[in-house]
């Protein structure tokens, strides 16, 4: 902010009033947001899974509703077009003043940006008028309510068994545990290698005060400290078949905890008085995870988006490579590009799509929105949606500019050295599965090939459990993450499983039918013929071998129909965000101490009842 325009006195009553209206709008938003997290506890206790799912979904829309409500209030009350630059400048300063002592200033700043960007022209999107950079510090904000951000327990003083039990009972869940002593004994056994026989004087557990709720699970998140070593841990609590609670396992490997907090999953519901303190704690467990992703997974996705954008701008400033088309087979509806030095891809909806695609921009956006609101069960990438993103033109490869002009002219605007893209999605970059399989085959790496196919089938099975039919199941529509998990990212043809009609190919009625090059039987819009999947998936002999070994059921109509029926019967599947092998009920010996050289190769499988 230049000195010349900095107001010496804050004299505008209107600026003060508008600042108050925006702050109140944000406070209302956060009150409702917290209420949803508090409700999640009740749903979990009572096993009301449908209600829990619906509440998690509707919470995603809260933010935009509150922003719109606030914009409407301001437009009704004032004429924003009439406000002078002077008033806008004072507005930001008044707002900063109002955030002194606020428990969530970073979120309130973002809310201010959302409201003002709805009203102001793009030329005002700078630090003079909005929070391009944060102003109010989030460091050392303390809670005022009864519970601190995290609680500390000392096993050397109270005994290990008592302490572990206390950690769980302190959450005061109203449902009883089937056998907490048994579960705690198993946790204790798995922690034995960390604490050894003699506890260091500083031995302690630090445990976040609120539970993390998602789907049918509640998670206790914390870390154990012994001497100079720290061990992150997560205790998942589930219902057993009798509706009693059990500790299902304890996650002790960082890799497993990273996957629990993955961008491919639904957001947690956590009741946080000071969210920045939660983010700071979680970062101490997952130091490589950007703060933007931690805010997002906590359901504060606008804050995640804001921080992501700041990180992105900084990356742009400190890099010099060029944006270019993403490697792999070009999409028919999306134009995908990336900056090689940056682990994300940018996706633009093309203006025209060749046959056989029959869709529209609005329909594609709807599908992406569906994924945003749906449980992504670890198998669909989350996307960040942006409008009017300005790129420095000189950072674009000429071929990419030509492609953009050819495929998406309606979304492009040029302003000096700025290339503005009116609408795009940003998503984590992965290795397209078709490339992964080709590379593995070229390297003679059968293990990787088999892993890719096992994961591919598991991804489809997890999606189906969440009522998602991918539509286009070609390998190019799936990506492999850093953790070697296969994730779906092409959403323009997805449907609900319950809307699909899974059919067998009818027996030919005569020789003519048999010889027909086109199907002789009528095909409905939602008809799916699983027997035909092999035609486009199994051309490669090795892939065929691995596929038939692990996932032959995917080629039968019966399998799909049975899964559809379970969903129609109201069954909500369990999808475990950790390997089956570490669940206490599988009673395998305690896994060895963490720190594997390679990320573990495992697949999440759906519990067979
Ligand atoms: N997250 C990602 N990471 C890496 N590459 C990606 C990612 N998303 C897309 N791609 C690349 O871009 C291509 C097109 O993306 P996508 O499948 O989303 O587009 P589409 O137009 O919907 O495709 P289709 O023609 O199959 O409908 C992919 O085949 C892949 O090569």
List descriptors.
609 residues, alpha+beta, six-stranded antiparallel beta sheet, 19 helices, 41% helix, globular, disordered C terminus, binds adenosine-5'-triphosphate, tricarboxylic acid cycle, AceK_kinase
Concise structural overview:
The chain has helices at residues 13-46, 49-77, 85-98, 105-119, 155-158, 160-169, 180-195, 254-260, 275-285, 291-297, 301-317, 361-373, 398-407, 433-442, 446-465, 511-515, 533-537, 541-551, 557-568, and strands at residues 150-153, 204-208, 212-214, 217-226, 229-239, 245-247, 324-325, 334-338, 344-349, 383-392, 412-415, 418-428, 431-432, 468-469, 478-480, 486-488, 495-496, 501-502, 527-528. With 609 residues, it is of the alpha+beta class.
Write up what this structure looks like.
Strand 18, helix 16 and strand 19 form a beta-alpha-beta unit. The chain is globular and about 90 Å long. The chain folds into four domains: 122 residues, no CATH class; 151 residues, no CATH class; 111 residues; 144 residues, no CATH class. Helix content is 41%, strand content 15%. Strands 1, 2, 3, 4, 5 and 6 form a six-stranded antiparallel β-sheet that branches. Strands 7, 8, 9, 10, 11 and 12 form a six-stranded antiparallel β-sheet that branches. The longest helix is centred in the first third of the chain and has 34 residues. The protein contains 19 helices and 19 strands. The C terminus is likely disordered. The site of adenosine-5'-triphosphate has 22 residues, from strand 8 and strand 12.
